[in-house]
Write a structure and sequence with these properties.
The chain has 130 residues and is α+β, with helices and mostly antiparallel strands. It contains 7 helices and 5 strands, in the order ααβββαβααβαα.
Length: 130
Amino acid sequence: MTTTATQLEQRLLHVFGRVHSGTETNVLLQKRLSVAFLFLPLDVAVRVDGSSGQAAEITAGEAARTAPSDLTFRISSDIAHAFWQGDVNPVQAMMAGHLSIQGSLVQALALSPSLKVMQQAYRELVQQGE
């Protein structure tokens, strides 16, 4: 399935807004982390900032690309859709050069439970045709 940059960005903004709206289950707020996701070469950037511990701020585009983040995930656009569908093993993607992480690997691993929730929300959006 081909996903355009606009579709990917809109889906992720929706997913992150849905997943990171509650404070009780939000790992980013609990750990006060900011995380950026960059998809190359589509040039899509989405950032979730939970550093306040109160509410996640979600940005896209240039603001997401240039703001400092505790973690930055660079994901090959070729596998972006499959990654968010849950069809890509993150460790294998790293070994193949399709995924890289800048920042603490310990912090990245702490986000693992959130990844499953985000992937589920993404799959639901795709199934709904959004």
